[in-house]
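Lab notebook, bench 4. Still working through the backlog of constructs that have no structural model yet. Next entry is a single chain of 249 residues. Request: give me the structure tokens for it.
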Amino acid sequence: MEKIKYPVYDYIKFIWKKKLLLIGFTILCMVIGAALSYARPTVYTSTALVFTGNGNNDELSKPDLITSRYKEELPDEFKSSLNVKADPFQITLSLSGADKEAVETNLNKVADKYTNDLKEDFDDLNEAMDNYKNALEEKVKKTEESITQYEQLIQETSNDSKLISYSEILINKMDMVDKYRADFHEAEYDLALLEAPKKSDVKTIQSSNNNLLKNALLAGAFGFQLMLVLLVLWKYIINARRALSQRQE
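Model written out:
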């Protein structure tokens, strides 16, 4: 009668016999992972929050464009670590490196440059809106003066055709002045809502120079899987050699 074979059980049995090797290698990898954690340098991350106010445009509001524009202000070792995050009405700039003072100095430099550019854009917008408001105010004033003139003409004229013409012009002028007043008040309101950009103080945090438990567990899991694969391969080679030996006999 042919002997029944249980290859899976055979592999499990072999691995169980080598369990000390499996456990030992896993522990060794955990120790190595923990040791490497302490070898990582301390990293400082500085963050600056910039309130954009109303002074922004695509180039000053999209993270990718901000990054590409302002990383040129940084030394080469910091260019890749510049990170920009956009939220409604605010931009968060962050920079990382091993030298705390250098990180803070360079982030301040970028944040100040960005804030100043926003302020220039804000000043242009503020000036344009102020000019628009003043122009509307002037239109209201001139239209009101014109209305007064036509009201006087209507009172003085006795010509029916002229009276009709002046009345039509007066009605048109009154409609226009109402529109100008509405636009003026809207522009005045929008101007009052304008807020200038401003930068918050730079804050720096020290990232953990090691994640001991996390790195040890990851290294242990890697070591366990690697040794498991090696044990299966070892058992496969043993079985293959045994089968080849039996054929030769």
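Notes after review: Residues 1-40+210-230 form one domain. The mean pLDDT is 86. Flag for follow-up if needed.
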